[in-house]
Amino acid sequence: MREKLLGKSPEELKTIALEAGLPAFAGKQMAQWLYRKRVSDISEMTNLSRQGREVLSGKYEVGLALPLDVQTSADGTRKYLFPVDGDAANAVETVMIPDQDRKTLCVSSQAGCKMSCRFCMTGRQGFHGQLTAAGILSQFFGIEEAGELSNAVFMGMGEPLDNWEEVKRVIEVLTADWGLSWSPKRVTLSTIGVLPELRRFLDECKCHLAVSLHNPFPEERLQLMPVQKAWPLEEVIGLLRKYDFSGQRRVSFEYTVFDGWNNTKRHADGLLRLLKGLECRVNLIRFHRIPDFPFGPAPLEQMEAFRDRLSRGGITATIRASRGEDIFAACGLLAGKHNSL
Q: Does this model's pTM top 0.90?
């Protein structure tokens, strides 16, 4: 199998160019072809010599994967299905969410997930492999709206910090001046709280952070989130308190609201105590029913009462609008399934 160029930096491309008998500056030219002009084949890099392109093509490919399927929701949300390393049976989903003048891409970083959260369809299917930087970038470059994207959230299939090296490469492409030149403020990474990779993210990256919390009480959180045993929430919060979120970088907490499990006054007050003094916001998410799960979604009025109690306690809280539920593109529903499978 040929090595993929997509995801490599200009310095790495420079080394590849020299090995192919091309001049050093060809590395920058290749980066422009990959990230600005977004070619799908080395033969399209026409300012490289024909001989150099032939040598490159013997060992490398661009590595751009195209979607196998696309579904469009009644609300305009679109869900794309991408093969993993050419394997249609092992596929991942990415979701494009339009909102007025914004188009946000919800990106997958793994095929399946190791974290096994009981309320998540991705977690239920187990782990099937890491995505390469090329596989993640294909989700940006391979969709119809590729040139219109305004934001990205690493909230699709998988745990981004469990694949940090490849995710970091992608974020570099998105934010570097030789890449897409996005501001880090346009990118949010969501994590369940994987230590020590969370510390690496905070030290090495300026993008926004979202932490999957869902219950402020450790023993209750452990019931649905096995990760609580490996990386306790209190340790995650303790680490976050060492960083400054009063400037451009923000931290938010994702809180899926289940009827009768985590939506009481006791839970709201527990959340206020847990997050006291931390510059943050809480995003309340409506639960989307999945088979063989004991809890259902909380009524809207209960979510509003929960939000208002947090707000009165000094924490900014919002209820996130559910998008794409009719095509199973909403939070917790991604499973990498092809319509025909």
A: yes
